[in-house]
Batch of 2 targets.
Target 1
Amino acid sequence: MDEIVCANTAFRYWRCPPQVRNLYPRLPNSEDGWRALSQAPFVTDVLKTPIIAVASPGCCNHHSGLRSTIRWEGASDAGTTIDTHLGFSVTNPLNTLFTMTRFVSQIDLVLAMYELCGWFTVFEPTPAAEMQLKMAAKAVHQSSTQDLFELDEGEDEAPWKRVYARVTVKASENEGQTDRHEDSRKVTKLKGTSLWMRKPLIELSDLHQFADKVKSQMWGKQFYDAAQQVIGIAASPLEVAGILLLNRPRRLGGAGFTNVYANDLTPLSISAQSIAGQKVCYGDIVIVNPILMKGAIIEIQGEVIHGSGAILDHDAERMTALQSMGFDVFLVTHDMLNDSKQLDTIVRSVCVRLGIRYKAKTEAMKSAETRLRANVLCNWLEIGN
């Protein structure tokens, strides 16, 4: 394919784990016709149609069910595109976000920014790809996040780490890894979710520098405004939802906390180190009152694990260590974020602990919160569709 894939189509490419991309053959050339191109497995499974691409110089725009083209002067700049082994070029992650600006709402653009700047991605393989992944999978033993991404010999890009959830099924349906309970007709097994862990594709500082650079261009102001809402590096969609619901201005549906940090590094005292077994900890969401030098930590609790139960034990040790140092640690689940009363109770408690004046929301603010909650606690697979 001769065109440069960009915008939402490129976003779907960057969401696809490298071990999944490697399962697919190269795309046919555009000379073979767009209908043949649209039926290529990687297009039907990952890129989807219409394919959004940069219009060739001197050519008119195309808009059909198979492809849509845009005019973009930045396509000729050095380093804006990357050649793939699948036979086409794609915009780099930063320019992918920039070209998405004209196709998605601002809140979806913010979510996409958090994802490409974060330690996670959301991708659901097709059943056929799922089967091939299982056949190719090696035994995965307990490991930390930091050593999940080491390159094996001969690999151009490290595989991404899939996140698993425990599900209970009937014994007759048992497949793969299980924890069998005696005298029970059901077993617990690990099922791959649509959440994957990987190194950030964009440095947060690069996002803000790029946003400042393009804000005078067409669509640049919208991009700049969205980038200002990305305040840290998140490790899951639920963390992003928590950050936005707590940090966004009250008129836009958030709680209005200003000193909010994502995955903030906290040095541990000697006694806390003995509990956690490490010298530093990361709080999922840290809210600080700099005047009183007090901090509260919001720990986001999801129903997923990273291959083994060890990471859950580590989370408990980390929270205990932080509490021993005087931090107020709040355990927050998806259901709590999704319930206006429970979220308000958490906000009120944080205000009390940090010496911040609590203010009840007006009806307009509550309506804005309802809209925000629907946008951030959404099906992340639908972003950019």
Target 2
Amino acid sequence: MAADQPNPTHAHATGLAPLPDHQDVQTRSWQELWRRHTHITTPLRARRLPCDIEFGLSAHIVRVTLPDDSYLIISPPQDPPSDRRPGDPEGWIATREDPDDETLFEVVYDSLPSEDPGADPRPEARHGGSAEPLIEAIDHRLAQLGLLPAPTSPHPAPTQPTPRAQDATGAPGAAYAYGDALRDLTDRLNGAESHADAAALLHQILHPTNGLLTQLGEFFETAGEKAKEAEEDDGFDLSYDLADAAAEVRHLGEVLHVAENRMRALTPLTPAPRAPSAPARAPSLPPAAPPTSRRTR
């Protein structure tokens, strides 16, 4: 299944807000939209803010429910609509609104391209469709309003592995500090003495905000932005491929978000008790030789 099933118990156990619980969640189209927006929804769900994907005026939006029953609308361009793929627009606008208070309308973040060529560009516009500045701006504003639940990290992180020294010559195969660091983590997993130790190492990979998968998604997204700077057709095509890779990596984190707890809950098999060994018996003596009859003279 492309999107994980709603499971409030597992979500609570990992510090994530629960997934949406409505009939659209089971449809392939909604699951694909969710997958394309996990770089937005996962960091917010890690802050225990419920998220959903809905259709806005002309494009899909992310709706985020806040603790005071107001909500955030995180939207790509709507008028005119973006011609980019869902989840990868030219920019984002995040507004805070309240269904019971029409006077509440606040722009929290706006990196949409300006429609007025004579206007001064907004500082946020340089970020375009990047997710990280958007999440940082939301964090900052919600913290000011007292509406940001503190993210939880129930398990302390193990000591970070030390990357192997790089060869000063830069010879191929010698300067892969990040690959070496992951290889060291794999070696530690292979030598883990308990499932709890293995779960702590999974925590390094699957943590929804600081884990390797989340950071790898950010890496691919940034690489896509870098490819666009070439302003060539192949650069834009490459940026789409890298954006898809970022979404796939983040979706993998969504699918595996309970793997750490499942690993921790495993009970190691104990060896079956051995039956007591029978006492050693003394070797049997050979049968006595029959008596030899003697004749007397």
